[in-house]
Structures are given as structure tokens and as C-alpha cells.
Fold:
Amino acid sequence: MNFIADLHIHSRFSRATSKALNARHLAAWARCKGINVLGTGDFTHPQWRAELGEQLELDEASGLYRLKGEPEQLDVMAGGAMQGGDAQGPLFMLQAEISSIYKRHGKVRKVHNLIFMRTLEDAAKLSQRLEQIGNLHSDGRPILGLDSRDLLEIMLECAPGSVMIPAHVWTPWFALFGSKSGFDRLEDCYGDLSEHIFALETGLSSDPAMNRLISGLDGYALVSNSDAHSGANLGREANLFAGRPSYAGMFAALRASAKRQDQSTLDCRFIGTMEFYPDEGKYHLDGHRACNVVLEPKDSLALGNICPVCGKPLTVGVLHRVLELADRES
Structure:
């Protein structure tokens, strides 16, 4: 069977998110959208993690979690109850996003990373370590003064089966390759632990074809997720797999995809992604929102990357940044 996985979302404990986001609400929208595996979002937040412990139970066959009881009933599509996807509701994968703000190579870096863990016990263990570094209570996506490389090391120490995937890697302000605070090479960010990174999240403003302009990314699987802040936005980007959903199986498939290995013998196979049009993404082009300026990269370069309205540096968008690092024409 084929199945859909959306592995980057948020709870109501993250800033600028719907207050309706609880486990039953998320399960209902996942069923409505036909999503079979859904990230939990925000497992580092103590209250959200406690709710997950109360409302989810481990599904032994998959190593993922299921909702206890029934999803919330939704009234959508002109008032009719709409249900699809898995009749039992989605499986949940424990997932969190960490915002790391730190200094490296004489520059302030702001990088968002996704972390996935097998069990709530592992999630609690990591959260206890991170709570010694920063505040996990104020935001479901905590901001920590912690180098991405060191976050990766702590994660591996806490739970060997855990996985890190750099989030929306081209976003200007908060991403691995972002124009404002990122790096030109993955190895410059994760250093001696770079080998533990095998997948990258493309984000809403880029798609796989754009990322494949850069030969340095050939050894990575490319994933897409909704980064949803409300139930209705689940699945606006997602991942396609074939076979039986499982924690170990999905990441084994992504590792095989990264290495261009044959997946035919695997219980779970990575097929590809469902994509938002990248040019509809908020950060696809260059510009200044306050000045109502939106520019193609060639037009920004002609202006020296200076805003024609306010005279300050433009925010260099995803397309421009991809083209800066590209070493292929197609």
C-alpha cells in the first residue's frame, strides 16, 4: 500500500498557531486529508508532551503511536462530516523543531532543526537535557543558544535511534542555507557529525528540482512537510511512501534513497514528495514586505541587492540563494 506522511507540524503551544490544536483535532484533520503518519510537533514542551502521554498509545507493530479513542468530529465542506484516510486514524511520530541561535565563524547563525524520536521516554530524556540550556515552557518551538552540531550530539547521546533533519533549509532567516544566517555547506554547520544527516526538508518556497541544482546535495533524501500551524494546513506538503508504515522502516527508506540504493527489498520505500508550488511560498523571491517590493534574482542583482524604496539591503529569497550555490544549469 502507499501512504502519506506529514512529519513537521506544530501544537497549540507554538507561537502563532491555532488554539484548537490538540491530539484529537490533529487526528481528525489527518483522517480528513488522508494522511496516514503525522508528526506530533513540539514534544519538548512539557504540557504538550504530558498530553501526548495521556492521549496516545504505542502501536507495537509500527513503533509509532496511535490516538486512544476516536478523533474529534469535524464539520467541514459546507457542514458535512468528512472522513477519509486510515479508518483507525493516523499513526503519530514523535517530532519537535528546535530554533538554534548561536555564533559560528564570526556570524550569528539561526538554524531550525527537526528531531524525531522513537518513544516518549526518549523525548523526555532529551527535553531534560535541553531544559538545562534554555526555556522549553514558553514556546513549543524553543529558542536555544545551542550550536546545531552540539544539539545533534546531545540528541544522539540521549537516544541512538533518533533522527535530525534540517528544517526548511532555504528560509532566509532561520535555516541551514538561509541567506541571512545560514551556511554555504552542510559540513560547516554540523562539522564532524555531518554523516548523521541524511535528509533535508525543502520547505514551501523550494522544491526538489531546485535543490538538485546543487551537486553537494546529491547524497541527501529530500523531504517535504506542511509545517502546519492549523489543522486545515496539514498535508499542504507531504511525503509519499510505499509498504508498511513504521518508525524504523521510514528512516531506513530515506537513508537508502539518500544513497541511491535499491529499495525493492525494504518493507517501506520512499517514493517522493507532494509539493506546494514553490513560487507561491512566502520566501521564494527577494523583497521587502513593508515596502511592497518583490523582485526576481536578476532584478535584485541589478540593484545591488538594495531595496529601491527604502535603500536598505533586500531580503534575499530562496530562488536567489539556490542560484548562488548552484553548480548545475538544470
